[in-house]
Amino acid sequence: MDRKNIVGWNIRRIRVAKGLTVYQLSSALPKSSPLSCEEIARMELGIRKVYDYEIQAISQALGVRISELFGTPPRKRRPKQEKK
């Protein structure tokens, strides 16, 4: 997990948890901040930057506080190795 794209990772995590598709999120955005499905998918994958005004619109569409989009993702746990 690339820690440089915390917002994109959280957009996807929250969107999936709410049962929304990328299309539904795109449609829920205000007309003043239109984003295509492709742009949202690229944000989630870390290919595209997310701008401040887009973060505000996405947080409103998802029904979350902006701070939730900056939350640190959980670290992957390594499986415990068996003792010999």
Describe the structure.
- The chain is elongated and about 60 Å long.
- With 84 residues, the protein is mainly α.
- The chain has helices at 6-17, 22-28, 37-45, 52-62.
- 21% of the residues are buried.
- It is built from four helices and no strands.
- Helix 2 (22-28) packs across helix 3 (37-45).
What level of helicity do the residues show? 40-55%
Overall pLDDT score: 87
Query: What is the beta-strand fraction?
Result: under 5%
What is the total tally of β strands?
A: 0
Order of helices and strands: HHHH
Total helical elements: 4
Gyration radius, rounded: 15 Å
Please state the structural category.
mainly alpha
The coarse overall form would be elongated
Biggest sheet record? none
Distance between the first and last residues' Cα:
31 Å
Low-pLDDT stretches are none
Outline the fold blueprint.
Layout lengths: L5 H12 L4 H7 L8 H9 L6 H11 L22
Offer a quick outline of the entry.
This protein has helices at 6-17, 22-28, 37-45, 52-62.
What features would you highlight for this structure?
elongated; mainly alpha; 4 helices; 46% helix; 84 residues
